[in-house]
Amino acid sequence: MLPEEFLRRLSQLNIPDAHFGPRPTTYRINTLKAQPVTHPFSVEPVAWNDGAFILRGATLRELTETDAYKNGALYVQSLSSMVPPLILDVKPWQRVLDIAAAPGSKTTQMAALMQNQGEIIANDTSNVRRYRLTANLSMQGVTIAQVTSMDARSLWQRYPEQFDRVLADVPCSMEGRFDDTDPKSYQDWSMKKVQDLSHLQRWMLRSAISAAKPGGIIVYSTCTLSPEENEEVIDWILAKEKGNIILDEIVLPALKLDPAVLHWGGRHYDQSIGKTARIHPTPLMEGFFIAKFRKVKSSVPSRIRG
């Protein structure tokens, strides 16, 4: 049974027919490996992401036993997780920061979109997660990523305004991935955890913005439904960085995006937050939140930029 307080909050969010159960295996073709890839099982293409597929009539284990998976030609990844790199719109020869990169799903996706040309700083502080990140980068044939282990909140001091694109896919309470058939997916949830994470997320996002060049793009994303970790973080950063950043509209043709929350718990958020997007949990998609910023002027003192 999902936590009672979580269910109460969910009803206040007015998310109809939210799905909290198993989803089919989904994956994308790794374009850094040899092509074309032969699909070993029945698959369904994803309309909004060329090269992404839904596995039908087979199990994840059967997929991982194929040569295509073992040689890194396929990467198993949830569909919602594929959205932030597409919104970030990375290009070859850009300098990109993935501020909380492990285990590397989005890092490897971005490297493929960049055609292994340019540079990615893939950062994570967890030794275990960083090991998985390094292994995934190697398996996927990524050669442009440098793995680092800096505190994301202060990473901007090492890289002040140096990146064309920054992805801040931050640690969160993972409400969008809850599975009511698997108590482990929600057993650690609490309002204290939500509040603690909200504080961490704010400073990670501010660091991400300080690491971006003027004119650069920053994408903030979570796999949670909590306004405290989503719209409230965006409301806070808009006030802190007033005049330095603006929100861009999020558009991904053929993908249905859900509206942002503009008021919660007696608070009314900046109206521009209507440009952010949610993905409600469905039988196919995990719950997600995405915000896209454009940095319009420098936010770092010249003595730090050097």
Would you kindly provide a brief summary of this structure?
This protein is an alpha/beta fold and 306 residues long.
What does the secondary structure layout of this molecule look like, with pairings?
Layout: H1 4-13, E1 26-29, E2 43-45, E3 52-55, H2 60-64, H3 67-70, E4 74-76, H4 83-88, E5 95-98, H5 105-113, E6 119-123, H6 127-139, E7 145-148, E8 163-169, H7 191-211, E9 212-222, H8 231-240, E10 245-248, E11 263-264, E12 267-268, E13 277-279, E14 288-295, H9 302-305
Parallel strand pairs: 5-6, 5-8, 6-7, 8-9
Antiparallel strand pairs: 1-3, 1-4, 2-3, 9-14, 10-14, 11-12, 13-14
In CATH, the homologous superfamily of the largest domain goes by the name Vaccinia Virus protein VP39
How far apart are the first and last residues' alpha carbons, in Å? 54 Å
Strand content: 15-25%
Counting structural domains, the number is 2
Fill in the CATH topology of the largest domain: Rossmann fold
Query: What is the average of the pLDDT values?
Result: 95
CATH second-level architecture of the largest domain = 3-Layer(aba) Sandwich
Radius of gyration: 19 Å
In DSSP terms, counting alpha (H) and pi (I) runs of 4 or more, how many helices?
9
Q: Please state the structural category.
A: alpha/beta
